[in-house]
Amino acid sequence: MSKNYRDPAVLMLKDGTVFHGKSAGITGTTVGEICFNTGMTGYQEIFTDPSYFRQILVMTNVHIGNYGTHQKEVESGNIQIAGLVCRNFSDHFSRLNADSSLQEYLELNGLLCIHDVDTRALVRHIRTHGAMNAIISNEEFDLNKLKDLLDAVPDMNGLELSSKVTTNQIYDLPNTEDSVRLAVLDFGIKSSILKQLNKHHFNVRVFPAQTDIATMVDWKPDAFFLSNGPGDPSAMDYAINTASKILESQKPAFGICLGHQIFGLAMGVKTIKMLNGHRGSNHAVLNLETGLGEITCQNHGFALDTNEVLANKSRISLSHINLNDKSVEGIRIIDRPVFSVQYHPEAGPGPHDSRYLFQQFSNMINKELGISQTVN
After folding, report:
1. The one catalytic residue among 257, 260, 283, 297
2. CB of 294 within 8 A of CB of 307?
3. CA end-to-end span of the chain
């Protein structure tokens, strides 16, 4: 076990607020935008979700680490968060088939954690004052020096990050030869999304985030998929341009989270930086097309501007809304076989209420291609 375990650590927010706690993980200093997740389980999947890249994550559940870690419960090849904040950090785990303790996992993946923090007070502060940059250290305790380091960190507004987490090369997840060809644009895709696409029998080819439309079209795809990912979508001109070309192709397309925002931007709708975002596995969403509610998994700090979506009723249909703050959770392009949602229907982790969207996408493609429909 690392010699720094349970040594002092400090967390400083951009506005000067300071929290003291104890160390876990590695020795060092880390910076990022602080945010919180309300999920009670699934911490390993959350830590490895590329959408959290360059963010310091506060887990609101009291006990973190109590069921250890398992190599199958990851959403990417490594931990993506910049740092971890929690209240009770457990280096002992109860699950018999776990591979390691959370402490060992953090050490192996080079992550710094501060625990024994009053996370209720911290989350209340973030909810009131908004997400902001923060710094954690268990090696430097001079607050003036920490403030200087923090002042040099760029704000999430205007920050393009998908190119940092996307695949470096094109790769295939083949199905049967006669399966529908789906071109996936990887902005930081979760492995559970790819599993759902594979489950629905797509012949998947995954392309790096900055791939141009000509390269994808050369593969002759039947449909397109735009993935989740980190950063400010308005800073991704390359992706907005590609999404515009996809819309011009009139082929079926589906976007999740960042992909949803990119489609909105391609339609001329602006995105906004939310005060503290939506992150957790218990967010209530209303499907306006069916009248049914869904409990969803979410992770985003930006959203489509609701007023701009409503002002484009002739081109965009609002399909889903958040029941807590009425923000945009889904849209459908009226004259194209294209739809997108802000939340995560793959649910890794989270409830499975929204997984029907993958079947809905498959059915839509089959309709466009004249293939007999699968019952939803």
Report:
1. 257
2. no
3. 50
Take residue 130 and report the two structure tokens written for it: 């908004």
Look at the alpha carbons of 40, 45, 47, 50 in this order and tell me if their dihedral is positive or negative.
negative
- For residues 67-96, one letter each, b for 16 or more C-beta atoms within 10 angstroms of the residue's C-beta and e for the rest, the string is bbbeeebbbbeebbbbbbbbbebbbebeee
The catalytically annotated residue of 33, 107, 294, 346 is 346
Known catalytic membership, residue 113: no
Cα–Cα distance for residue pair 130/321, rounded to 1 Å = 22
104 noted as active-site residue? no
DSSP state of 362: H
The pTM of the full predicted model, rounded to 2 decimals, is 0.95
Q: For residue range 304-355, what is the model confidence (pLDDT) as tens digits?
A: 999 999 999 999 999 999 999 999 999 999 999 999 999 999 999 999 999 9
Tell me the H-state helices in 3-151: 43-47, 102-109, 119-129, 143-151
Select which of 115, 283, 300, 344 is catalytic.
344
User: pLDDT tens, 354-364?
Assistant: 999 999 999 99
Strand partners, 305: none
User: What is the C-alpha separation between 351 and 86, in angstroms, rounded?
Assistant: 23
Does residue 106 contact residue 47 with C-beta atoms inside 8 Å? Answer: no
Q: Check if 352 is active-site.
A: no
